[in-house]
């Protein structure tokens, strides 16, 4: 725990540098692109539309939790877009910024944070789009929406811990980036994002709850649909934070142990 608190303090002390570099990374993604930032939204929006047409219009999926399928789908898929973009980008951060790793005296441990924060900017815009969609469907604003700040923090912390593990491993095992992409493809289908856990017998549903992504997806839906607080799920909350803290501790520890060799292998 002391190790995690020390890392958190170190990150906080460099918050201005991190935000500056994250903004630069965010802008750099769209340099030279005709549509610029819109490319970041086109693919996720098209993905949502495809699932909407396939599941709701094609398979005629029934309303879930007493709301139209599309309103049930969006709160589940928005945190996944953030998780997917952040983890995939941060895994390759050492190669992308190898000039900083090799040639400058630089605090390279903030590189995964820069990539995650860059993805967070997009996520915050998607949250506003999600809110607008709900308002267009006639849903009234709710104080429960404020809880999105908590679940966004949960997603950020989990993906950051995973990013430290995969980014440091990717320097030595160059297949790690492809491995993460495969895991993300599998993860989208084993998490209850496009389907409801209620389609399975109750006695096996606990298996899905072992996946920390379950906590995030259902948490976003709690904010918009069921209007439940995270404190109403104490077992899931404690379980999630135990897993997330363990991943973060392993990730930062591994990164520190291997960082002396990064310049030699990149």
Would you summarize the structure shown here?
By secondary structure, the chain is mostly helical. The protein has 13 helices and no strands. The radius of gyration is 19 Å and the shape is globular.
Instruction: Give the biggest beta sheet.
Output: none
Distance between the termini: 31 Å
- Overall, the morphology is globular
Unreliable runs? none
Helicity range of the residues? over 70%
Average pLDDT score? 85
SSE succession: HHHHHHHHHHHHH
The total of helices stands at 13
Number of strands: 0
Task: Give the class from helix and strand content and strand pairing.
Answer: mainly alpha
Task: Provide the β-strand percentage band.
Answer: under 5%
Radius of gyration: 19 Å
For the record, the count of structural domains works out to: 1
Structure in words:
By secondary structure, this protein is mainly α. The protein has one domain (2-265). It has 13 helices and no strands. It has helices spanning 2-13, 15-28, 38-58, 69-91, 93-96, 98-103, 111-136, 148-170, 176-190, 206-209, 212-226, 234-258, 262-265.
SSE order and pairing:
Layout: H1 2-13, H2 15-28, H3 38-58, H4 69-91, H5 93-96, H6 98-103, H7 111-136, H8 148-170, H9 176-190, H10 206-209, H11 212-226, H12 234-258, H13 262-265
Helix pairs in contact: 2-7, 3-4, 4-7, 4-8, 4-9, 4-11, 7-8, 8-11, 8-12
Features of the shown structure:
266 residues; mainly alpha; globular
């Amino acid at each position: 725990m002391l190790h995690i608190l020390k890392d958190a303090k170190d990150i906080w002390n460099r918050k201005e540098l991190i935000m500056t570099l994250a903004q630069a990374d965010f802008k750099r993604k769209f340099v030279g692109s005709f549509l610029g930032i819109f490319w970041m939204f086109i693919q996720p929006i098209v993905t949502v539309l495809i699932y909407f047409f396939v599941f709701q219009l094609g398979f005629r999926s029934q309303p879930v939790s007493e709301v139209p399928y599309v309103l049930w789908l969006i709160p589940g898929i928005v945190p996944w877009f953030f998780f997917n973009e952040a983890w995939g980008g941060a895994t390759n951060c050492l190669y992308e910024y190898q000039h900083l790793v090799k040639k400058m005296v630089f605090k390279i441990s903030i590189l995964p944070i820069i990539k995650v924060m860059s993805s967070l900017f997009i996520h915050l815009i998607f949250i506003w789009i999600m809110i607008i969609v709900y308002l267009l469907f006639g849903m009234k604003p709710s104080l429960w929406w404020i809880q999105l700040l908590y679940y966004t923090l949960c997603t950020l912390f989990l993906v950051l811990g995973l990013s430290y593990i995969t980014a440091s491993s990717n320097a030595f095992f160059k297949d790690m980036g492809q491995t993460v992409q495969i895991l993300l493809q599998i993860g989208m289908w084993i998490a209850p994002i496009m389907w409801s856990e209620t389609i399975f017998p109750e006695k096996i549903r606990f298996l899905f709850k072992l996946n920390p992504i379950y906590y995030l997806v259902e948490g976003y839906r709690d904010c918009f649909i069921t209007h439940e607080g995270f404190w109403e799920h104490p077992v899931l909350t404690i379980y999630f934070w135990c897993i997330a803290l363990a991943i973060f501790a392993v990730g930062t520890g591994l990164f520190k142990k291997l960082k002396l060799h990064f310049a030699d292998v990149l």
